[in-house]
Amino acid sequence: MTPMDFLLLTKGPLFSLAIAIFALGILIRLFEIFALGRAHNYAAARGNEVIPGLKTMYRRFNPDPGTFKRSTFDVVVGTLWHVGFVIALLLFIPHIELIKSTLGVSWPGLPNPVVDAVTAITLLGLVAVLIHRLTHPVKRFLSRPQDYLIWTVTFLPVLTGYLAYHRLINPYPLALGLHIFTVEIFLILLAFTKLTHIFSAFVARYYNGAIVGRKGIQS
Amino acid sequence: MATSKTLGESLRQHGVSRRGFLKFCAATASMMALPPSMAPAIAQALEKARRPSVIWPSFQECTGCTESLTRSFSPTVENLIFDVISLDYHHTLQAAAGDAAEHAREQAMNTNAGEYLVVVDGSLPGPKANPGYSTIAGISNYDMLMDTIDGAAAVVAVGTCATFGGLPKADPNPTGAVAVQDLVKDKPVINVSGCPPVPMVITGVLAQFLTFGTLPELDEYGRPRAFFGQSIHDRCYRRPFYDKGKFAESFDDEGAKAGWCLYRLGCKGPMTYNACATMKWNGGASWPVEAGYPCLGCSEPDFWDAGGFYKALSVPTGSPGDVLLTAGAVGTAVGVGAGLMSRHQGKQAAQHHDKVTADQLEEKL
């Protein structure tokens, strides 16, 4: 197989397969959660559910002071690489072109050097969280093979994207093919691992906000 | 027919000055990534070189490669180098036709057995395909190629059709077209891809053969590294705009007028390896990207099937939107079904739950 064969395979049939598995898997999981709903609450409602639910989806981005003090590294570096990952994913011009061709929607992107810098920070952040996980006794104790697996499948698309952009793998069809291939692995595993939190975290936050909102507690 | 006249004698006869000839040798040395000190050696070798016989069969092709070579440079020392090879068989350029033309081919093969070069443009129906799709003088392309290469020193595949199959091989490949390198296994094959290839590249390859009697260093696709070693993107004069994130978004917007990067308009420069950006076309006048047109990636294999010409390189080749929609609809239906089934099972379990009172429990204890 030549590098071009590999690129065309990843850009064509493999990409279709990956997004089919991704869409199928993530929607099955999400709609199963929605259809299950929650147990009926017979107590009289003391407050609204929807507004606090939506507010909590956003407010959980801000760590409470206690968490920040206890886990400064996790909050700072975790936020840094998560934001970097989302910026590189959604604001890099070639990615916007891909989204436009798939979903029909687009938005303005960032200049390449900005995305490049953000990607470098994201890579460093990801390496730092892995080192922290390996050296912190409690984290290491709590880590399961899947935690290392999802770190790997998250790290590889960022790394290969960075290498492809800087043309550090030659020929370029191989570099781009490898990047797309690692993204496909990410997409395929997304719905069946902890990566589902990309979507389910917001569902959980909504339910938390809605439950306490119903009880009349300020969220 | 190959004559005993040397290349140097031929050039002088054509009125090429010594200065012009040496300039060509220096350019050739630079193209082949050799030090400038090699230019005199190239000049010396070319001066003494005997005109090699070249047999040029054209199969499933559009003659664009020949047009490119013969018309775009006129007349330069490269053309004369081309003139002074002994082009013994070439449909478009030879005066003979029919049996006389085929006779010329056979005679060149016999006279120069083991020494002649075969230059091929066009793909050809493979051994398993219907040979009737392309024949010359009643001979199938496959038979003619295999017969011609038998006594050849080397084979040069010119153009993307000959090197990778090109347009005839594009999906669904109705004629079962294959590339020259798919069939020629026991002779050296040099691929000079491009639709059409840059004229200087073919003359450069011939110059190397005449100079050193050797074939150039080739990349993984069998292309001379000296010309195909770097991508269009890496040598593009618009590259600074890519790096700054400044892109033309339509062919007549402000970005296009200001000469910004054509990536979003479908430029395949990042994946394309060719010498267009450095050697340019029409005697160095311009090249597609300089004319405001995105690179199509024509020197790469399967470029016809590698996605729309006006779609960015990052855009998938299939119909991901449809796949997403279908998979999404199925996923939603299955998810809702699974959720409702779980709810139903929960209710059923609650209904069939045998209730026990505290007294009953005490009895059991």
How would you explain this protein's 3D organization?
The complex is a heterodimer of chains A (219) and B (365). Chain A has 219 residues and is an all-alpha fold. Chain A is 77% helix and 0% strand. Chain A contains eleven helices and no strands. The termini of chain B are far apart. The mean pLDDT of chain B is 87. The chains are: A mainly alpha (219), B alpha/beta (365). Chains A and B meet through helix 1, helix 2, helix 6, helix 7 and helix 10 of A and helix 14 and helix 17 of B.
Largest sheet of chain B: 5 strands, parallel
The largest inter-chain interface, given as chain pair and residues per side, is: A-B, 51 and 51 residues
Report low-confidence residues of chain B grouped into runs of 5 or more. none
- What oligomeric state is this? heterodimer
In whole angstroms, the N-to-C terminal distance of chain A is 56 Å
Number of strands of chain A: 0
Per DSSP, the total helix count of chain A is 11
Helical coverage of chain A, percent range: over 70%
Order of helices and strands of chain B: HHHEHHEHEEEEHEHHEHEHHHHHHHH
Largest sheet of chain A: none
The tally of helices of chain B reads 18
Shape, per Cα inertia axes of chain A: globular
Broad structural category of chain A: mainly alpha
Order of helices and strands of chain A: HHHHHHHHHHH
Helix content of chain B: 40-55%
Distance between the termini of chain B: 114 Å
User: Which strand-content bin applies to the residues of chain B?
Assistant: 5-15%
